[in-house]
User: Which sequence fits this backbone?
């Protein structure tokens, strides 16, 4: 079973590569819009890169509006991983 | 002043070419005849394709473009952003002025990005397509993304007519300025190379293939040993405005656009006829109110194809007589397709400013079937007042535009 630390690491790697974000900015409290400068188009592309990174579907149940901080995303992926026994 | 009577002028230019970034880099590359045509490894892997060469833009760093703008740009968008910024700066602007028009297109959208998406289709993994992929393959993608990035909020129109695209969009900007739709406009064409372009022209028997081991000699407009064109890429953009606008803000006028004309060949999609090209050039002269003997130079479309060069030179002879100076810049950089008309117009403006005519590179022996005009085969220093620029497209779309050095 994937650990939360591994989820954080993989998520940060994917976001850093896709959105050219430095590691220092990728803290759990970071707000996608105001701290990371990501918009609604980025949110859609984020699903694509995270699905490739984790190897399971994220888009079912993925509600962009409910994701405010990076921690919200970690929690969402962790919940899915548990449901999928990953 | 009534807008129809207002003169239209050029006050800024921007270029990305096989020589690199910048209009000066482009012109210096031409005048120094720097080699820029090279071998394409993808073509080497295709034995049935005879041509093996292209002129590509060198790898450049585009990280200066903000990521949120860059994410929706294929290479032709990156070239267009870079050229647009340069043209704006030369025109005296740090950012786009209010209600700036923008007229720009390309032959196709990004084949490279399309190929990625079709791979996802083939593999049944369409969920891998990103929104930023789609935003790169719309027909007007470069126009839209550069307008967004530079906050160009006037009329944005992206006409596409293959190899005539750059000059067509300059002509449309000229007409829009004349009509009063806008007072200022960026205009031209952009293009990114893909081996598919070379392959398609090769299948149509229109490529250079007899100088694959001597790339610098491969493109030979009007020369008896030519077999066709070399595909290239880049972007050329002009900042055009009414003379009144330029005078009011004290901008330096680089050139005047005297007139424009466009017509269509209906006999054949791929082979232009001399009478139709003659009518196009005469249309531009009439539109500008300029007599044929006032034109100092024809900067030809002349891509190095057998039939195209013959038809254009015969048409030039019919319009101007044997005294007309004729050059083609395709021998230097190949055919930048949708960018060629506007990119080569930048060279026309510079030739007038510097008082010199660039030669047709690799024109060593004129094909006797070409019209008996005055071909320029070595740099000529002489004052130039008026240049006619031609661009012709597969599909039969022809454009001619007249430029004049400001007094």
Assistant:
């Amino acid at each position: 079973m994937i650990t939360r630390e591994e989820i954080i690491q993989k998520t940060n790697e994917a976001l850093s590569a896709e959105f050219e974000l430095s590691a220092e900015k990728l803290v759990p409290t970071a707000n996608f819009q105001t701290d990371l400068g990501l918009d609604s188009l980025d949110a859609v592309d984020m699903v694509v890169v995270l699905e490739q990174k984790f190897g399971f579907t994220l888009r079912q149940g993925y509600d962009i509006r409910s994701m405010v901080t990076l921690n919200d995303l970690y929690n969402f992926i962790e919940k899915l991983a548990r449901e999928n026994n990953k | 002043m009534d807008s129809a009577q207002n003169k239209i002028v050029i006050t800024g230019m921007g270029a990305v070419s096989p020589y690199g970034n910048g209009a000066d880099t482009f012109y210096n590359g031409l005048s120094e005849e720097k080699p820029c045509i090279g071998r394409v490894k993808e073509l080497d892997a295709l034995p049935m394709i005879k041509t093996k060469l292209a002129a590509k833009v060198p790898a450049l760093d585009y990280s200066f473009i903000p990521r949120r703008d860059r994410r929706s740009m294929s290479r032709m968008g990156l070239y267009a952003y870079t050229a647009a910024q340069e043209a704006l700066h030369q025109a005296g602007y740090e950012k786009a002025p209010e209600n700036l028009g923008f007229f720009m297109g390309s032959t196709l959208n990004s084949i490279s990005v399309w190929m990625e998406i079709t791979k996802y289709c083939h593999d049944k993994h369409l969920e891998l397509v990103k929104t930023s992929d789609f935003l790169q393959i719309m027909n007007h993608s470069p126009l839209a993304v550069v307008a967004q990035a530079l906050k160009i909020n006037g009329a944005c129109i992206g006409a596409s007519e293959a190899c005539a695209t750059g000059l067509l969009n300059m002509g449309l900007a000229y007409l829009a300025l004349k009509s009063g739709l806008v007072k200022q406009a960026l205009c031209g064409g952009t293009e990114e190379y893909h081996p598919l372009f070379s392959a398609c022209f090769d299948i149509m028997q229109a490529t250079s293939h007899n100088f694959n081991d001597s790339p610098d000699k491969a493109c030979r407009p009007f020369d008896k040993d030519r077999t066709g064109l070399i595909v290239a890429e880049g972007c050329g953009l002009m900042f055009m405005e009414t003379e009144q606008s330029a005078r009011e803000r004290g901008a330096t006028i680089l050139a005047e656009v005297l007139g424009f004309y466009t017509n269509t060949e209906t006999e054949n999609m791929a082979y232009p006829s001399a009478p139709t090209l003659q009518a196009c050039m005469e249309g531009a002269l009439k539109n500008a109110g300029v007599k044929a003997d006032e034109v100092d130079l024809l900067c030809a479309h002349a891509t190095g194809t057998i039939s195209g060069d013959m038809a254009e030179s015969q048409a030039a002879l019919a319009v101007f007589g044997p005294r007309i100076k004729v050059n083609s810049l395709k021998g230097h950089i190949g055919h930048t397709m949708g960018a060629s008309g506007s990119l080569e117009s930048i060279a026309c403006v510079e030739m007038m400013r510097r008082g010199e005519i660039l030669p047709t590179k690799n024109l060593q022996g004129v094909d006797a079937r070409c019209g008996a005009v005055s071909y320029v085969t070595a740099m000529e220093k002489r004052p130039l007042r008026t240049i006619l620029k031609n661009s012709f497209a597969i599909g039969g779309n022809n454009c001619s535009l007249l430029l004049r050095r400001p007094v």
About this structure: Chain A touches chain B through twelve residues (CB under 8 Å).
